[in-house]
């Protein structure tokens, strides 16, 4: 019997002569639960397992956010490959003592990572317009997937990744919306709303602040380490400007959705979760984008210049649901979520949770470990990536599963669409189509550059 000792000296064992190697670990999703070594699902416990017993991980996109995620992944598995279209990023991650440790392979083309049969898990932390193409191909290649938010660029991409995840139900998929793992604030708010403690919810205000403004930005020389053509991917070809690339991509609709998908992917997600509108077909029936401004001029939903940030910086997009609930996705007020019910209201963000129901502990004896487990889809409460690797091992949906995330992304993309056109649109959440507005419906998808098509499965 092989013994495992964690940092605290706790000893577990393997059963019989079963060797819990890397493939046995991954194979747990197929039902080999009896082979799980007896230790807590903690980063330190994973860090102390033999290197041969840990899944192999490939990290695709290792800029600032990607490197941070990679360092967390390294607590659970062996990072054997890093990839980035900017070689400077790839080499930095390769030689980071907490990521590649000078030993991992580095690539400029993500397909080299997906081709490797020895890689079990991929982490996708690229600009938003690359997420789904890589994620679909990763699932097809048999990988478990962690992908940063926002998961999609368009409403059409929602359908593409949903179909891929349905096709590969035994592969774990976690979206990087870590607020779903905040027990003291966001989970408490969700529980309070779902338990009906605030009464009937009438209005939800989702404060996400406005996108920054800037420009015109000059054309610049492409860095020698950067494959600018590959970076642009499915998006139209544009001249290189420093502020179009890397972190700044968020403020250009060509690659992202501004604050609608940046902070919206977090706060709208919590709002939809609390309202229990995470199932396919849930969503608003009318979206009002008349109260929105952009930092540059627009014509027919498109910016008329290409040298300045173009995502909305001042907005209040009203989403009306069939039962009368109104969700205001707004740049005004504090960053955070306000739930207003017939009995009371609360406000929650990453720093606090406030309101009379909180001050008076309306959820006393109604927010237990069992309640948190229910929100975690039957899994125990634990940090975000711990939950992911538990699902890699045991199977089941992650706390931030792609299906529920896509319902939030629909609201985010509809916000962007209505804001760009500056008008009200009607939406059929069942068919996922704009009603009676051909131009608006054309914004639910985008033409992709040849060679960067997304695989349909």
* The CATH class of the largest domain: Alpha Beta
Please report which band the strand proportion falls in: under 5%, 5-15%, 15-25%, 25-35%, 35-45% or over 45%: 15-25%
Give me the number of helical elements. 16
Helix content range: 25-40%
Question: How many DSSP E strands?
Answer: 20
Instruction: Based on Cα principal axes, name the global outline.
Output: globular
Q: End-to-end distance, in Å?
A: 44 Å
- At CATH level 3, the topology of the largest domain is Dihydrodipicolinate Reductase, domain 2
Q: What is the makeup of the main sheet?
A: 10 strands, mixed
By CATH, the superfamily of the largest domain comes out as Dihydrodipicolinate Reductase, domain 2
What does this structure look like?
With 457 residues, the chain is α/β, with parallel strands linked by helices. It folds into two domains: 3-179, Rossmann fold; 182-365 and 403-442, Dihydrodipicolinate Reductase, domain 2 (2-Layer Sandwich). The protein contains 16 helices and 20 strands. The chain has helices at 22-27, 43-47, 64-73, 87-94, 110-114, 131-140, 155-167, 183-194, 228-232, 259-262, 264-274, 356-359, 369-375, 384-394, 402-421, 438-442, and strands spanning 3-5, 11-13, 56-60, 78-83, 105-107, 121-124, 144-147, 173-175, 201-207, 286-288, 292-293, 298-299, 302-303, 314-320, 326-330, 336-341, 345-348, 353-354, 424-428, 433-435. The strands form four sheets. Strands 9, 10, 11, 14, 15, 16, 17, 18, 19 and 20 form a ten-stranded mixed sheet that branches. It has a six-stranded parallel sheet with strand order 5-4-3-6-7-8, with helices on both faces. A two-stranded antiparallel sheet has the order 1-2. A hairpin with a 4-residue loop joins strand 19 and strand 20 (433-435). Helix 6 (131-140) packs parallel to helix 7 (155-167), helix 7 (155-167) runs antiparallel to helix 15 and helix 8 (183-194) packs parallel to helix 11. Residues 1-20 and 29-41 have low confidence and may be disordered.
């Amino acid at each position: 019997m092989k013994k495992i000792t964690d940092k605290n000296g706790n000893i577990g064992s393997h059963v019989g002569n079963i060797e819990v190697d890397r493939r046995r670990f991954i194979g747990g999703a197929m039902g080999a639960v009896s082979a799980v070594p007896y230790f807590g699902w903690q980063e330190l416990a994973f860090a102390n397992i033999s290197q041969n017993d840990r899944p192999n991980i490939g990290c695709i996109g290792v800029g600032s956010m990607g490197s941070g995620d990679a360092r967390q992944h390294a607590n659970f598995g062996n990072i054997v490959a890093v990839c980035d279209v900017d070689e400077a990023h790839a080499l930095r991650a390769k030689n980071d003592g907490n990521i590649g440790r000078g030993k991992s392979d580095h690539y400029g083309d993500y397909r080299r990572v997906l081709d490797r049969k020895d890689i079990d898990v991929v982490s996708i932390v690229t600009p938003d317009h690359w997420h789904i193409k890589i994620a679909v191909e990763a699932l097809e290649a048999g990988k478990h997937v962690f992908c940063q938010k926002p998961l999609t660029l368009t409403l059409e991409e929602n359908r593409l990744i949903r179909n891929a995840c349905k096709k590969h139900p035994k592969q774990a998929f976690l979206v990087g919306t870590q607020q779903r793992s905040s027990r003291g604030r966001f989970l408490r708010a969700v529980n309070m709303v779902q338990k009906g403690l605030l009464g009937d919810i009438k209005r939800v205000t989702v404060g996400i602040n406005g996108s920054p403004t800037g420009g015109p930005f000059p054309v610049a020389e492409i860095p020698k380490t950067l494959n600018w053509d590959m970076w642009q991917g499915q998006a139209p070809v544009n001249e290189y400007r420093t502020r179009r690339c890397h972190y700044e991509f968020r403020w250009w609709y060509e690659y992202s959705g501004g604050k609608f998908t940046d902070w919206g992917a977090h706060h709208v997600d919590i709002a939809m979760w609390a309202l229990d509108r995470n199932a396919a077909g849930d969503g608003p029936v009318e979206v009002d984008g008349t109260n929105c401004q952009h930092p540059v001029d627009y014509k027919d939903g498109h910016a008329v210049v290409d040298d300045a940030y173009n995502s909305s910086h001042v907005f209040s997009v009203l989403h009306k649901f069939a039962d009368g609930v109104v969700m205001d996705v707004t740049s005004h007020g504090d960053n955070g979520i306000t739930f207003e019910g017939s009995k009371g209201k609360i406000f929650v963000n990453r720093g606090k949770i406030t309101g009379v129901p909180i001050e008076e502990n309306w959820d006393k004896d109604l927010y237990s470990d069992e309640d948190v487990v229910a929100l975690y889809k039957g899994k125990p409460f634990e940090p975000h990536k711990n939950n992911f690797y538990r699902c890699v091992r045991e199977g089941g949906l992650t706390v931030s599963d792609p299906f529920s995330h896509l319902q939030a992304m629909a609201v985010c993309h509809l916000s962007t669409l209505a804001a760009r056109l500056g008008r009200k649109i009607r939406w059929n959440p069942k068919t996922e189509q704009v009603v009676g507005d051909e131009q608006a419906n054309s914004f639910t998808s985008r033409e992709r550059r040849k060679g960067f098509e997304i695989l349909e499965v």
